[in-house]
Amino acid sequence: MDIEILELLAAPFVASVILAAIHAYLGIHVVERGVIFVDLALAQVAVLGTTIGFLLGGELQEGGAYWWSLTFTFISAAIFTLTRTRKHGIPQEALIGVVYAVSASLAIAVLSRAPEGGDHIKSMLVGSILVVSWDEIFTLAVLYSIVGVFHWVFRAPMLRISLDPEGAKAAGMAIKWWDFLFYVSFGIVVSYAVATAGVLLVFTYLIVPSVFAIMFSDRIGVRLLLGWGMGIVVSGAGVMLSFQYDWPTGETIICTYGLVLILGAFVYLATNRPPPHTEGDRYFERRRRRGRHGV
Q1: Selected residue with higher pLDDT from 119 and 77
Q2: With 0-12 CB in 10 A as exposed, 13-18 as middle and 19+ as buried, what is 248?
Q3: Which of 22, 244, 13 is nearest to 132 (CA)?
Q4: What is the structure's pLDDT at 228?
Q5: Which of 156-160, 244-248, 291-295 has the lowest mean pLDDT?
Q6: Measuring CA to CA, which residue among 86, 74, 92 is closest to residue 38?
Q7: Is 90 in contact with 196 (CB distance < 8 Å)?
Q8: Which residues contact 267 (CB under 8 A, 6 or more apart)?
Q9: How far apart are CA 43 and CA 103, in angstroms?
Q10: Contact between residue 7 and residue 154 where contact means Cβ atoms under 8 Å apart
């Protein structure tokens, strides 16, 4: 393959790998918490923040747009935190769905009035990862490294609340406080990712590797390795296929993820594996047997 072509594809591939690295971990939390569509909702809220900035006279691609999206995402993080453990008879997924639907409708309504509104709406959904710059990749890597270090330092309470919420509550942990920190860090990741990859691709990076990994292991470390491995292989395959057949990059990566997940499901069913424990029972039992506290 020509060197110039490899240089062209290198940037979107590296960006995809960085996105997969942080989202594979956050996806474990999201799937275990049972708030599958929170990423989709937060991503759409981030887009809404950007479009509100546009409505007030800004530019969709200017640096200030990120702060608008981040502000809206933080507000949503506070709402999701307050409603996660509150007993009101309404599933939180219902609230998340409402937030997504309203945010998407408002964003599309605003963007439809913009010049080249159709292109902006398409970019909102699937992003423009093929034309990502190395400066954007550097910023992405630095920002996600900071979030990654935060989650590494506080992995014990974060994982405890996601994997064993009843045990965390019984232990007197400040669940709402840790929930808010989780959603804020999650919002920082999503707000920046959606500008590069779009709502649907960000959602795919979060959920598909996590679901794939959960099918084959109940151990956090193994799940991360499986999720990261899938992210690297599928991102590379998706970028190459999009170039080889002149398909849109974002959509190609999403479909490749879906195909690999289906193949993984067939393998899972063929091996007749018992259903994995998603509540974290085995995880914390191993820790107790080793005489270790926390994660």
Answers
A1: 77
A2: middle
A3: 13
A4: 92
A5: 291-295
A6: 92
A7: no
A8: none
A9: 9
A10: no
Taking alpha carbons only, the member of 3, 29, 2 closest to residue 223 is 29
Contact 235, 254 (CB under 8 A): no
Euclidean distance between CA atoms 183 and 73, whole angstroms: 9
Mean pLDDT estimate for the chain: 79
User: Six-digit token pair at 48?
Assistant: 């809404």
Phi and psi (nearest 5°) for 112? -65, -20
Domain 3-289 fold: ABC transporter involved in vitamin B12 uptake, BtuC (1.10.3470)
* Nearest CA among 76, 58, 288, 260 for reference residue 167: 288
Structure confidence by residue, pLDDT tens digits, 161-202? 888 888 888 888 888 888 888 888 888 888 788 777 878 888
| CA separation for the pair 198, 70 (Å, rounded) | 15
Phi, psi of 16 (to 5 degrees): -65, -40
pTM for the model stands at: 0.76
C-alpha pair distances (Å), 202 with each of 18, 42, 174, 223: 12, 10, 29, 19
> Alpha-carbon distance 194 to 200, whole Å?
9
Q: What digits encode the pLDDT tens for the residues 242-292?
A: 888 888 888 889 999 999 999 999 988 888 655 555 445 555 556 666 655
Identify whether the C-beta of residue 136 lies closer than 8 Å to the C-beta of residue 196.
yes
Residue 104: closest CA among 198, 210, 3, 6: 198
